[in-house]
Design goal:
Elements: H1 4-13, H2 18-31, H3 39-44, H4 50-59, H5 61-69, H6 72-77, H7 80-83, H8 89-100, H9 106-128, H10 134-164, E1 171-175, H11 177-180, E2 190-196, E3 201-203, E4 206-207, H12 208-224, E5 235-236, E6 249-251, H13 252-262, H14 265-271, E7 275-279, H15 281-295, H16 302-320, H17 336-350, H18 362-371, H19 377-399, H20 412-421, H21 427-449, H22 467-479, H23 488-506, H24 511-525, H25 528-537, H26 539-551, H27 553-561, H28 564-570, H29 581-589, H30 599-617, H31 623-644, E8 651-654, H32 656-659, E9 669-674, H33 678-689, E10 700-701, E11 714-715, H34 717-726, H35 730-735, E12 740-743, H36 747-762, H37 767-782, H38 798-812, H39 819-829, H40 834-858, H41 869-878, H42 884-907
Parallel strand pairs: 2-5, 2-6, 9-10, 9-11
Antiparallel strand pairs: 1-2, 1-7, 3-4, 8-9, 8-12
Helix pairs in contact: 1-2, 2-5, 4-9, 9-10, 10-12, 13-15, 17-18, 17-21, 18-19, 19-21, 20-21, 22-23, 23-25, 23-26, 24-26, 24-27, 25-26, 26-27, 29-31, 30-31, 34-36, 36-38, 37-38, 38-39, 38-42, 39-40, 40-42
């Protein structure tokens, strides 16, 4: 025996469970392989520290037993790459394959069972040593279960197809519960659904239904069979349609029929966490797509929330019992399940509109609730911290023997060991902390689950110009027109929708036009009852529709022509995130477009433009972000189309706001072509502008080339150099301030030519006078005749702000195409004081907001306000101003501020 029993007793005495640790160390030392490093060295030099290993042996009898049974596992665990680092799915799978080879199913999956037991021990060790956060532990446990399920499923699916013949149908396994959320604990059942794609017959006597139910039964049998190498996982199929009374496996159509006709609230809660973990990924995805309206359809009524409250009451009464309500960390009062119900209730209420909430992971869904301001930040923090604490307690309870227990032990010794394992100095400190955490959850649960819908304020038809027409329109929505039949339930649902609709219309800039667009959308959608229920269920979706119809006639018409785009865009998990040029290119690559068929590119551009408008209308992005996203989308479409048409050898330079990555709605793209490939440039311009049923891609404007429209479309580098050195007008050299290479082999060469010409122009003695003369010319040629209305070309307008910055850039030799960044650099250089830079940004930003709102409406260029006071008031409302006088004052102040800055630095400044 290694150093005798004294060494072992000394080690065991420092642990939380001396007798168990001593017994385990004795048995390990006796069974330790002679070829392995000395046992004492392995223990004392354990990479995670000797206390971590003793901690595992003290609190987990099952892990101790595994190590005694296979001492080689301890030698494996002592490798730093095994015990110190987390493992992803692929790494785990490679480890399994390297150990089992092709014999994974031999001896009733003995190799898989051994691998699973060893990985469970590794994860328990890392968690006890505080090396793995909760998310890492639960993800790795879930990966183990998923690998086991996939390997068993693949084996028996292939075996049955050899044995009985191969059905022309796919099979999939979906996980629910904690495995579905990738948040498995150390002794979870795995809740599964077995699904096959369609009905059919293998033979006249043998149906697909029988085949897949036999397959499901064989998988279940494999998991439930005991084995010397250990168990796999307990499988629970009771969450399937009809529970234990229903068949093990159902077809996709059968699933749809069941949930549509008989699905209950608890089944909606269960399906929130549904995720494919075995078999066909495509079939699992189709199931989730098909059942999304069932999972997230219902209105947040007291009835639905009361059902969830009743489920919790039944659990406490029938499952937990009054004596364990304070000790059951999962099902007790303020426990894990209570936190899950809070989050899932809010997912049911708000999930149909907010794709971020359609999330199987509890912690990710909780973060989404915080980001969407659907839960106060303080409550989110309380729930997050309590959930993590309770899961740590739950894991400690289960690590002991991998039994499904969630209740604190009553034996003082076991309770002391549990408290010590969780780093508490006493049982009293632990139980006090537990009680405080759980009691903080219950008030939140009561507030959320018992919350009642608030009746919107009564709003009449006085918000409409033509009240009689509005009354008829609303009545038609409820009753239908002519012979069109509306079911009583549809009228009932619209009765709930009507006051909320009127409430949002009252906030619109143009309630009349917005209501008309809404009616057109309802008619185009077709399934009126489904749409009304969807909007009652998801008031945020109604808000989005009304705000979009009010903000943009272009976007409204697009949604009316293609109602499916609303769901496609808003259900995208990336709806709330910006989309870069690279991400747009990646998505364009997947569409299957080619030079002979550019419609996928046109459709993508249209869909992404609508996506940006929807986010803009909801106020999810600021104007600068809108300009950036539009520019990134335009650049991706340009690059992709150029590549499809074989124009890679043509160099393209962006100018104007495209060069600065600041284009607005309805903008053309100012470009120059460098090289000698005239045919490619002509083809690109035609292809980009060519409209089809999917719209166009983007209009390219090459008029800033040498000699404008009279000059050649494509010029060589030498031509540009000669032109800029001799014949270019001052405004053409000024335009180079925003030159930005986009693609092609001559990008750096052109940039050098442009910079040299631009730099020389900046040193001209009458630079400011030239720029001011150009501004006056633009004002004469493009102005509307009313300086006040001309927010772009008028005194103190957008162009003045841009010319001011460009004049200073040229004088100070600051090359920067982007206006915002140019202002930053001018401030850093000392050309603008901090106060001037701030005033310039604010005033210019306000005018660009005005411009964006006007251009967004029809996706067309606009450079002046309407002379109609009503239209001006509508603009003010769309920009968030309730009082028109406040808006007008802000507008006048912005114009005066910009003009004063321009005059001080350009017009009246000494050269």
């Amino acid at each position: 025996m290694v150093r005798g029993n004294r060494w072992i007793r000394e080690k065991a005495a420092t642990s939380l469970n001396p007798s168990q640790v001593e017994t385990t160390l004795v048995q390990l030392s006796e069974r330790w392989p002679a070829s392995a490093p000395p046992f004492v060295d392995v223990v004392e030099q354990f990479p995670m520290g000797e206390p971590s290993l003793l901690h595992l042996l003290a609190v987990s009898s099952i892990c101790a037993t595994r190590l005694v049974r296979n001492p080689e596992t301890l030698f494996w665990l002592r490798q730093p790459e095994v015990c110190l680092a987390s493992r992803g799915y692929a790494e785990m799978l490679n480890e399994l394959r390297s150990g089992a080879g092709d014999s994974i199913a031999a001896e009733n999956f003995a190799a898989l069972r051994f691998w699973k037991s060893r990985e469970m021990t590794r994860i328990a060790l890392r968690e006890l040593a505080s090396l793995a956060p909760l998310e890492e532990t639960t993800a790795e446990l879930s990966q183990i279960a998923e690998i086991c399920i996939r390997r068993v499923c693949e084996h028996w699916n292939a075996e049955f197809r050899k044995r009985y013949g191969s059905p022309d149908a796919e099979f999939a396994i979906l996980a629910l519960g904690k495995l579905g959320g990738a948040e498995l604990n150390h002794s979870s059942d795995v809740d599964l659904l077995f699904l096959y794609s369609e009905e059919g017959q293998l033979t006249p006597q043998f149906s697909y239904h029988e085949f897949f139910n036999r397959l499901g039964n064989k998988i279940l049998e494999t998991f439930s069979t005991r084995h010397p190498e250990g168990s796999l996982f307990r499988v629970d199929l009771r969450l399937r349609p009809e529970g234990s009374a229903g068949p093990l496996a159902r077809s996709l159509e059968s699933m749809e029929n069941y949930y549509a006709g008989f699905g209950e609230t608890w089944e909606r809660l269960a399906l929130i966490k549904a995720r494919g973990v075995g078999g066909s990924r495509e079939l699992a995805y189709e199931f989730l797509r098909q059942h999304q309206p069932f999972i997230y359809p219902k209105s947040p009524t007291p009835d639905l929330l009361d059902e969830i409250a009743n489920i919790k009451r039944r659990i406490e009464r029938d499952v937990v019992g009054p004596d364990k309500l304070e000790r059951d960390v999962k099902l007790g009062r303020g426990g894990i399940r209570e936190i899950e119900f809070i989050v899932q209730a809010l997912q049911l209420v708000h999930g149909a509109h907010h794709p971020f909430l359609q999330e199987a992971s509890m912690l990710k869904a909780l973060r989404a609730l915080r980001e969407l301001d659907l839960l106060p930040r303080g409550e989110v923090l309380t729930l997050d911290q309590t959930y993590r604490f309770l899961r740590r307690v739950e894991h400690r309870l289960q690590i002991e023997a991998e039994q499904q227990t969630h209740t604190l032990p009553q034996e003082p010794e076991s309770l002391q060991r549990l408290a010590g394992s969780l780093r508490f100095s006493s049982v009293q400190d632990f139980t006090a902390a537990l009680r405080e955490r759980m009691r903080a959850v219950r008030p939140i649960f009561q507030r959320i689950i018992s919350e009642r819908s608030v009746e919107p304020a009564k709003i009449g038809l006085e918000i409409f110009n033509d009240q009689k027409h509005a009354a008829k329109t609303l009545a038609d929505l409820a009753r239908g027109q002519g012979t069109f039949h509306i079911a009583p339930r549809t009228r009932q649902i619209f009765g709930k929708l009507r006051p909320v609709l009127l409430e949002w219309l009252a906030k619109a800039a143009d309630p009349n036009a917005t209501l008309n667009q809404f009616v057109r959308f309802v008619e185009a959608y077709g399934l009126r009852s489904l749409l009304f229920e969807l909007l009652v269920t998801n008031p945020k979706l109604l808000e989005l529709l009304v705000k979009t119809f009010d903000a943009s006639r272009f976007a409204g018409d697009l949604l009316i022509r293609h109602p499916q785009l609303l769901e496609e865009i808003t259900r995208d998990r990336a709806f709330y995130e910006p989309r870069s040029t690279g991400e747009n290119l990646r998505r364009l690559d997947s569409l299957g477009a080619n030079a002979g068929n550019l419609d996928p590119v046109r459709a993508y551009r249209r869909r992404q433009l609508l996506r940006i408008i929807l986010r803009d209308a909801l106020g999810l992005i600021n104007p600068v972000a809108v300009f950036n996203e539009l520019s990134d989308l335009a650049e991706a479409c340009l690059l992709f189309t150029t590549r499809l048409l074989g124009g890679e050898q043509m160099t393209i330079i962006a100018l104007g706001k495209f060069g600065g990555c600041e284009i607005s709605y309805g903008a053309d793209l100012d470009v120059l072509f460098v090289g000698d490939d005239v045919r490619s440039a002509q083809n690109l311009i035609v292809a980009m502008a060519q409209p089809t049923a999917e719209g166009n891609i983007w209009v390219l404007d090459a008029r800033l080339r040498p000699d404008g429209e009279k000059g050649p479309l494509v010029c060589s580098l030498e031509t540009y150099q000669s032109y800029y050195a001799g014949r270019a007008q001052p405004w053409e050299l000024q335009a180079l301030t925003r030159a930005r290479p986009v693609t092609g082999p001559l990008q750096s060469e052109f940039t050098e030519v442009a910079k040299n010409a631009w730099r020389d122009a900046g040193q001209h003695v009458d630079l400011r006078a030239r720029i001011d003369n150009m501004l006056e010319r633009i004002r004469r040629d493009r102005g509307s005749g009313s300086d006040f209305l001309d927010f772009k070309t008028g005194a103190g307008g957008i162009i003045e702000a841009e010319f001011l910055v460009q004049a200073l850039q040229m004088r100070e030799n600051i090359w920067e195409p982007n206006w915002e960044r140019a202002v930053d650099r001018l401030h850093e250089r000392g050309c603008l004081t901090e106060s001037e830079a701030a005033k310039l940004r604010n005033a210019y930003g306000f005018l660009r907001r005005c411009e964006g709102a006007l251009r967004r409406y029809d996706n067309k260029s606009v450079s002046a306000f309407s002379s109609d006071p009503n239209e001006q008031r509508k603009l003010a409302i769309r920009l968030g101003y309730e009082e028109f006088d406040v808006f007008r004052e802000r507008y006048v102040d912005a114009r005066e501020t910009l003009h004063a800055l321009y005059s001080g630095h350009v017009r009246d400044a000494p050269d």
